[in-house]
Design brief:
The structure holds two protein chains of two kinds. Chain A is mainly α. Chain A has 19 helices and no strands. Chain A has a domain of 208 residues. In chain A, helix 5 runs antiparallel to helix 6, helix 5 runs antiparallel to helix 10 and helix 9 packs antiparallel against helix 10. Chain A starts with a helix and ends with a helix. Classes of the chains: A mainly alpha, B mainly alpha. At the A-B interface, helix 5, helix 6 and helix 8 of A face helix 4, helix 5, helix 6, helix 7 and helix 8 of B.
């Protein structure tokens, strides 16, 4: 087997995980972590230049290339943020050096698992990869070993496992549907073969399978009412992990759902998966928007905002059609970039102020102007105000679906506006309230945060035609 | 496949559902662990019978894994933890045994209605197995919901995974990848759980999940 770029994005994280597990010294390992993440990102970009052939176990097509590049890019910038974050945690004694070694190794294992889930050409391999990603993040959420961190990790573990068990049951049902047509054996689990034969599968089995897959992977996407793990896991784990969870892992689970949606779309006798996704998306968006008002913890606040945005994205994909898919894809990209930028800011803020309570971190623009205004820019973006990229993608979601389902879109718009109100209410205290807490200068790396915000800003003003064409192509694939 | 072969396979899968019910009303941890061992044992027998009936020798490996790992190693290890923690006291159910049993019956009926209806075209044995497997999965979930104790939640989760193994072996010709991955995931799950239980003990001096919830309330 010759090793190309496709194997590279799996091998680099796997090997560096082994290396980081044995190397001492956080300064060295955090740099190595960055280097490995960058190398993976560079390899992922090369997929656009030379597209390797899909094999029996790994596949690459226009759909997953977008996801892979986004994942590896955010993973790289997060590793840069993580280096300065971890340095501070070591200085204050919240983490021991042995924990950091474990943390860096786990970070790379998580990258490996996510890349494997995105490139797997086998429904079972994909399931294994998502389970691996879940278990890795469970361990990372519990890293601080406080009461709250352990409870969050436990809750995440139990809910995540139930979700992943339902997803496996769905996967088995898909195999059962494919087996009479394709024949026994591994062939009936290969995506590329499934897609060519889907029209002849038993539609009833496919329907039931999709319900299980939607509930199973939907738990990982954080759709209400299966979202209970998400705010705790975000709030109690190390902040780089919150950024990776919100920015990437939710997307990976969504990718799995989209693949199965494409499979069902090829079978005319099966149910349309769209309405199910639209319903769950709307419930999530509306529920999370109202929950924003009663948050007292800054990381919890943005975790609920993630649920809201995943709801909007699932709504867009559920509506389907080239335009709505395009909008959903754009919104997903923008949300990943913005939300991770916000968590970069929040991580440093929580470190300086020594607390995550919103009431104790007011007046940030006075005490720490760069961080404060950075956060303001991030919240402006995430709330969907012009000229940022999320405004454009939310506008596209609304305008592309309004003609088809005006009543549903009204609900969505209400959710977006309610969320905007909630976010600004909290932002008012955090950024412009009476200055409180420590005024010690921040030892932060601002580059990752502002790089993300700059991209989101640029995307709101001007999208390169090549990018638009690429997204349109993927949107057509999604049907 | 017909006649006796089918009947035995049917009986074994049905017994698995029955043992799931028996787990529901155990109110002592040690008894619950015994029941889980029995659950895994029935699963091993069922998988072994499938291996014989389908003439699929690789399924014997799954049966052996289920027998040694789930029916012997895990219950013994969990028993050690339980004794070490000194929690031989009674399990509190969130609601009464009667209600839990009624809900369980409802879930089994639901899984029969759903699975038998949609799989009308499939192989009869696979149909039965899938319906029973779904029932075991749902009963496992019910147990996780009705128990507050961390150890019994873990047992609920593992009996849920047993249901998945039953489903996977019922699907004819499903590649070995699945069985290994399931065994592996249980292993990882167990390690994770072990670490957690240990740390929970360190921090709380109890494995009662309600005690943990109380910490949370101050946080919100």
């Amino acid at each position: 087997m010759n090793i190309g770029a496709l194997e590279g994005i799996l091998l680099i994280p796997a090997l560096s995980a082994a290396l980081l597990a044995v190397l001492p010294g956080y300064k060295l390992t955090s740099r190595l972590n960055m280097a490995a993440a960058f190398l993976t990102f560079a390899t992922a970009v090369s997929l656009f230049v030379v597209e390797p052939a899909s094999g029996r176990y790994l596949l690459v097509d226009d759909l997953n290339k977008v996801f892979i590049v986004l994942t590896t890019f955010v993973a790289f910038t997060t590793s840069a943020f993580s280096a300065s974050y971890i340095g501070h945690e070591i200085d204050t004694g919240r983490l021991k050096p042995s924990h950091v070694r474990f943390y860096h190794a786990m970070y790379q294992v998580l990258m490996f698992a996510m890349n494997l889930a995105l490139t797997a050409n086998n429904i079972c391999l994909m399931w294994v990869a998502i389970e691996l990603a879940t278990l890795t993040t469970v361990l990372m959420v519990g890293l601080y070993r406080t009461h709250e961190a352990l409870e969050a990790a436990w809750k995440y573990f139990i809910l995540g496992s139930v979700g992943i068990a339902l997803a496996l049951f769905g996967t088995i049902l898909i195999y059962m549907a494919a087996q009479p047509v394709i024949g026994e054996g591994p062939d009936a689990m290969v995506w590329t073969i499934l897609m060519t034969q889907a029209a002849r599968f038993d539609p009833d089995l496919l329907n039931v399978a999709f319900v299980f897959l939607l509930l199973g992977y939907g738990t990982k996407v954080g759709l209400a009412p299966l979202h209970a793990w998400l705010p705790d896991a975000h709030a109690e784990g190390p902040t780089p992990i919150s950024a990776v969870l919100s920015g990437l892992l939710l997307n990976v689970a969504l990718y799995a759902l989209l693949r199965f949606k494409m499979l069902l779309a090829l079978n005319p006798a099966s149910i349309a998966p769209g309405p199910l996704m639209v319903t769950m998306g709307l419930i999530s968006a509306l529920f999370a928007a109202f929950m924003l008002y009663s948050r007292r913890d800054i990381k919890r606040l943005f975790a609920y905002s993630s649920i809201e945005h995943m709801g909007i994205i699932v709504f867009a994909f559920g509506m389907g059609g080239p335009l709505a898919n395009f909008a959903g894809l754009l919104h997903m990209t923008m949300h990943s970039l913005t939300k991770s930028a916000i968590f970069f800011a929040v991580g440093h803020i929580a470190q300086i102020k020594g607390t995550q309570r919103i009431a104790d971190i007011s007046g940030l623009t006075v005490t720490h102007p760069v961080l404060g205004w950075g956060l303001v820019a991030g919240v402006v973006a995430i709330a969907g105000l012009p000229p940022m990229g999320i405004f454009m993608s939310e506008f596209l979601v609304v305008s592309s679906t309004f003609a088809r389902a005006p009543y549903l879109v009204v609900i969505l718009v209400v959710a977006i506006l309610v969320a905007l109100g909630g976010l600004f209410l909290k932002l008012n205290t955090i950024a412009f309230g009476e200055p409180r807490g420590s005024t010690a200068p921040a030892q932060a790396s601002y580059v990752p945060m502002f790089a993300h915000l700059a991209i989101v800003f640029a995307a709101g003003i001007y999208m390169p035609p090549a990018l638009v064409a690429g997204f349109q192509n993927v949107a057509r694939l999604l049907g | 496949m017909q006649g006796l072969t089918f009947d035995i396979a049917h009986m074994l899968a049905g017994s698995l559902v029955l043992v799931s019910f028996m787990q529901l009303y155990q109110d002592r941890l040690s008894a619950l662990l015994n029941m889980f061992a029995l659950h895994a044992f029935v699963l091993a027998a069922s998988v072994a019978w499938q291996a014989y009936a389908q003439d699929a020798p690789h399924l014997y490996i799954t049966a052996i894994i289920a027998l040694f790992f789930k029916a012997i190693v895990i219950p013994l290890a969990l028993r050690r933890i339980v004794i070490k923690l000194g929690i031989h006291r009674e399990i509190e159910n969130v609601f009464g045994v009667g209600l839990a049993m009624l809900l369980g019956i409802g879930l089994v009926a639901l899984s029969m209605v759903v699975m038998l209806r949609v799989t009308s075209g499939a192989d009869p044995l696979a149909r039965e197995d899938l319906a029973f497997a779904l029932a075991v999965v749902l009963l496992g979930m019910l147990m996780m919901v009705t128990r507050r104790n961390a150890v019994s939640q873990v047992v609920g989760f593992m009996s849920l995974e047993n249901g998945l193994v039953l489903a996977a072996t019922g699907a004819k010709g499903m590649p070995l990848v699945v069985e290994i991955s399931i065994a592996f995931s249980v292993l990882i799950a167990f390690i994770v759980i072990g670490i957690f239980l240990f740390r929970i003990r360190e921090r709380f001096d109890t494995v009662d999940m309600q005690a943990m919830d109380r910490f949370r309330e101050e946080q919100r």
